[in-house]
Design brief:
The chain is an alpha/beta fold and 340 residues long. The chain has helices at 41-53, 69-78, 125-139, 156-172, 187-195, 218-225, 258-273, 278-287, 302-313, 319-326; strands at residues 12-14, 21-23, 25-28, 58-60, 87-92, 94-98, 117-121, 146-150, 178-183, 200-204, 228-232, 250-251, 254-255, 292-298. Helix 5 (187-195) links the parallel strand 9 and strand 10. The mean pLDDT is 96.
């Protein structure tokens, strides 16, 4: 597949019959919201330019990321690219409310931004509509293509009773192309897939080379219902992101326990025996499941984009999975052969 301007495009997959096609690698824009540390406008613009040149056509953002900073930065760049060539997703469930009394402080979440606004959970119908309208204003785009409920863990019933029907209404009216939910767990995502007509879900950290709880619930449900899964957190918040695993590696946003470090190093050693790196294997593994349409990787700089594309396109021998099973580092039901 090629873009209109002739530049290459990574392989794409359509979400159901919505007409929305996701490239196999997606650009995660949390870093554009100053995740953990400051990022400049120029770094974001350069990174997105390199991603475009490398064939990435899917960009994911959210109001939560830097209290709207990610959406503003992403929109400023994407408005200059051919809109019909892009797929943009954002999220609803956290409204940004003015907070002048805290404007002189830093955000108390994990983003290095002024706390001039605060997040307010809202999965009501009105909250969904207001959130999407605000996202369109921040990005300056005429539309977004995919809308996810963002972390509705503690708002389950309202999400099912009000937020999902609102999203489905927007989709059926043609306002958005596809709808779903994004979470750091698989059980509730499986419920969304089984009990509603969502098109796509984003599952962070629960289907990776290190752990696969989504195999017990979400992934079989997605195959049965024809829903797409976007995998995020493919490195388990950093543990699988380097060729060698440092002692201070992070896992689920905290220090990795000693036993987890040891197991990960054993996986890395087997990868090395097959001539691939741990991050290459991590990206290749999640693509083996038929429900997975795309993998979104958080990216900050142009060099990180180049590295992610190189990893994503690396050839990983299938007998790597055999050896991981033989050494007890993958269970037999987590072998890609079991997914067919």
């Amino acid at each position: 597949m090629s873009a209109v301007d002739g530049s290459p495009v990574l392989p794409t997959r359509e979400i159901r019959s919505t007409g929305v096609r996701l490239t196999s690698l997606g650009y995660g824009a949390a870093q554009a919201g100053n995740l953990y540390r400051a990022t400049t406008d120029e770094e974001t613009a350069d990174a997105l330019a390199v991603a475009w040149a490398a064939g990435v056509r899917y960009v994911d953002t959210a109001p939560h990321y830097g209290l709207g900073l990610s959406e503003r930065r992403v929109g400023a760049v994407l408005r200059g690219l051919p809109r019909d060539e892009l797929v943009v997703s954002t999220k609803v469930g956290r409204l940004l409310v003015p907070s002048p009394e805290t404007a002189d402080r830093r955000d108390d979440d994990i983003f290095d931004v002024p706390a001039a606004t605060r997040r307010a959970w809202d999965f009501s119908r009105d909250g969904v509509l207001r959130s999407l309208e605000a996202s369109l204003e921040r990005t300056g785009l005429d539309r977004v293509d995919v809308v996810y409920l963002h972390d509705p863990d503690d708002h389950e019933e309202q999400a099912f009773a009000e937020a999902v029907p609102a999203l489905l209404e927007l989709r059926d009216q043609g306002v958005v192309g596809a709808v779903g939910a994004g979470m750091n767990q698989s059980a509730m995502l499986a419920r969304f897939v089984r009990e509603t007509d969502v098109d796509v879900v984003m599952c962070a950290g629960r289907f990776t080379l290190l752990e696969q709880p989504a195999l017990a619930d979400l992934l079989p449900a997605a195959v049965e219902r024809g829903a797409a899964v976007v995998v995020a957190g493919v490195y388990n918040s950093g543990l699988l992101a380097r060729e060698t695993v440092p002692d201070d590696a992070t896992y689920d946003y905290g220090q990795a326990p000693a036993a987890v470090l040891d197991r990960t190093r054993r996986v890395a050693a087997v990868c090395g025996e097959h001539g691939v790196t741990l991050p290459q294997a991590a990206l290749a593994y999640v693509r083996t499941h038929p429900a997975v349409a795309s993998t979104v990787v958080g990216l900050r700089t142009a060099d990180q984009v180049r590295q992610a594309v190189d990893r994503h396109t690396a050839v990983v021998p299938t007998d790597l999975w055999d050896d991981l099973v033989a050494q007890g580092l993958l269970t037999p039901d987590a072998h890609p052969a079991a997914f067919a």
